[in-house]
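Regression check, S-adenosylmethionine case 248:
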Amino acid sequence: MVNIEKYEIWSQKYDVDEIESDIIFNEIDFKKKRIVEVGAGTGRFTLKSLSLVKYILAIEPSNGACRILKEKVKQSQYKDKIQIIQSNFETLDISEFKGTFDIVFFSWSLYHISDIHLAITKAIDLINEGGIIVISQPYGGDYENCVNSIYHSDSISIYEKASKEAELLLKTRFCNIRDFYIRSCFYFNDINEAVDLSVFFVEDDESRNVTNEEKYTLSKNFAAKNIDKDHVKLSDVVKVIVAENRKF
Ligand SMILES: C[S@@+](CC[C@H](N)C(=O)[O-])C[C@H]1O[C@@H](n2cnc3c(N)ncnc32)[C@H](O)[C@@H]1O
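Current build output:
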């Protein structure tokens, strides 16, 4: 069970300096476009895109995230531009939307989806000619290293597996595929907040038991490199893949 309150705090932390969205909006033209956002979460990008786009169809399976997203949209002057559907992307019937969108955007969501092949096939079906599929997800950096030290796993390989599978499929369909990288940062008020917000992902996974010793290891890693006088700053690298629907 995802702890939505913490997720909400976290979603504000991880884009607080807005580098990631600024670069994405600079590299990819969202202006007046019809967008499908897959896994919109609590609306980190959704709300920032609303002023630019023509229309967003936001798909998000989590009840708590949808609740927060709807609340934010209600406050927005652009609320008429968005429809929110609470569903997994794989199971959503998209037949009425085929070929009607300019951009399908997976922001930090593709690697959550168990059937990548199905997700990308549906994304391809959704875009019109000249439309694009954008996949943005973490690639590495201090933050990932710290989290991996507590997960005892390699999150990067999960992201890479998802990108590779998606890229392979996209290459069989489109000839225009590019990628770029964004160096972003997370800022936390202090070590405790950084550890607390990071390990909640682990705590949500009931198959894992996070011990105090593990939390201590993580906070030591954070402390070693990343503290300055006001806050804890962790770098992160985000990879963005852009595939354009131009036939060979
Ligand atoms: C790390 S969050 C990213 C949220 C947001 N896009 C952002 O960049 O801040 C991943 C999101 O993907 C959603 N998600 C997980 N499985 C999904 C699925 N099968 N279909 C669509 N979204 C999914 C989660 O509920 C979560 O909100």
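Comparison notes: Residues 4-139+154-185+237-244 form a domain with the Rossmann fold fold (CATH 3.40.50.150). The two ends are 44 Å apart (CA to CA). No diff flagged against the previous build.
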